[in-house]
User: Fold these one by one.
Assistant:
Number 1:
Amino acid sequence: MKWRIASNFALRFIAGETIDDAIDTVIRLNSSGYYVTVDFLGEQSISETDAQNSTLEIVHLLERIQSSQVEANVSIKLSQIGLMLGEEFCKHNLIKILNKANETNNFIRIDMEDSSVTDQTLRILLWARTIYVSVGIVIQSYLYRSEKDIEELMEKRVPIRMVKGAYKESYKISFKTKSDVDTNFVRLSQKIISSIKTIHDVGRDEGRFPPVLAIGTHDENLIKKLININNNSGLTKRCLEIQMLYGIRNDLQSHYLEEGYPIRIYLPYGTHWYPYFMRRLAERPANLWFFIKNLFR
Ligand code: FDA
């Protein structure tokens, strides 16, 4: 993380290292019409102090979002706030975040990590919603189990961000091919869309509060398919939030924004960018070549 060439390149995908960097970028994105979800980078905290510091930073971030009056909610990872150190410890930290979200009228999205923590993450999510309702989750279409998982979530009207999934998983529990993952992405999203019977089911759709379904993808084919399904179900554009990662497919981001869809940019910041950056490189070999070329230059 101290390697300047890599950190400069990582800046393509992150706002910077501080809360000020994040808020400045949110202001810029908001002024172009984008909603934002801010992510304080960090995962797999292995000391209580790290987990507590991350919790404090997220609480501070919620305060800054409120005081700067920007349209942004917050995405968190449970392993960052101590899941590896015990579920009770993690919940203890999560309560602090939920209390602050309640106080500042904001929404928390719990990101989904690798499959070793899916059960725990879903359990803690449902518990969190008994304390503060504006909490959502992420579902990965590469996992076989996701179809069953969304049933309970849909019943409880938990806002879902559908993604393909970013971790290396065994083929015993996940689809092998891109086309199967894509098909499942559409099928699961369609299920959620068809569960929307009244406008009340869409959930709140304002700057900070996403509707019940957000699709987190840069895959143009999938976005087009989901837009068609949304239209054919008689739903308005505001019912389908499209989320993309900061710095990826800016062309698509602005295209769908101009078309009138709510677009939310996932904006990471912080010094712990290494695992996030590696996942972005791994997703697309072209990024790696771009990085290597710049390295030599
Ligand atoms: P796919 O990988 O098929 O890419 C489609 C196209 O998008 C590519 O052809 C390319 O043009 C572009 N693209 C994709 N990745 C790129 C990259 N790294 N660099 C440059 N171009 C790229 N995962 C997870 O497991 N848990 C989570 O909580 C989240 N959260 C999340 C939030 C949001 C807002 C998004 C957009 C994604 C996530 N993800 C995630 C990551 C997700 O699972 C997935 O790994 C990435 O989105 C890449 O997959 P695509 O759907 O974009 O399709």
Number 2:
Amino acid sequence: MKTALTGIKPTGVPHIGNYMGAIRPALELTRDYRCFYFIADYHALNFIRDPKELKQNCYEVAATWLACGLDPAQSAIYRQSQVPETFELSTILMCFTAKGLMNRAHAYKAMLQTNRELGRVPDDGVNMGLFTYPVLMAADIMLFCADVVPVGRDQAQHIEMAQDIAQAFNYVYGCELLKVPQPLIREQTQTVTGLDGRKMSKSYGNTILLFLPPKQLRKQVMRIVTNSQVVEEPKDPDTCNVFAIYKLFATEDERNALAERYRAGGMGWGDAKQTLFEKMNDVLTPYRERYDAFMADKPAIDRILADGAEQVRPQAASLLAKLRKAVGIV
Ligand code: TRP
């Protein structure tokens, strides 16, 4: 079985778009791959400077993935920081990473551009953690000889960089010790519509969070933007934001039934939203209950993550032993 590995930034509670677009597809890979999921907590240190927030976010993402169906008995789940071999590999990889390669990173270039526009010195606010972010990411991936890395489009360049770094190392030592990873890019076949009809995104402020209690979930659903058609008018499901979200949760029969009610007229937007709320609440309640149970038992999360790290570390250590030997550090 091939290996799939993906890192999760600890950015807190996800929204429906994150779930449909990233979490669910990543978890579906367990059917065809041996899967590794880890919390990229040292990556997050580049952005989160509040220790409480970092810690809390780690719990939230761990609880999220576990609640969404990640089975620690089947897949590996761990914190990057608990697999210290990552950082030794990162140090090795640093020596095979051209600075020029890092200069070309989109995220870094965007910062330079912003600084230029604001009249600041180009490297203002850029630290080495940020500059070498792709190297640490390459270490995450190669440590477990991942064949594929499921990521969004925005991460494609990072995977290409990992390929370059692996090839540079293998070339110098005439070996194949580092597996050259392939990206598994999630094409957004199914973008999730947000409250205002634009793509659901944190930056648009149009999200519905995944684990809202029923009352708040209902409130969010009632905020979905609709047109000004009155109750009697027949309505078009295909241009309606409420229906767009309903589709993601309903079965085909349920979808057809609601589309019928739209076209027949006599159904107001309040009614449509109530139908959507009930459907979402039915589907999401078990997820929310599992999430809440994990968040109420953080020691259980700690145990799962520590066990996960313990399980994968021997594999990491064995690769590092080979790499040290290859470079002459024993
Ligand atoms: N950089 C990724 C992101 O921003 C997170 C990440 C860190 C990652 N290490 C990884 C993803 C290794 C895949 C593989 O989402």
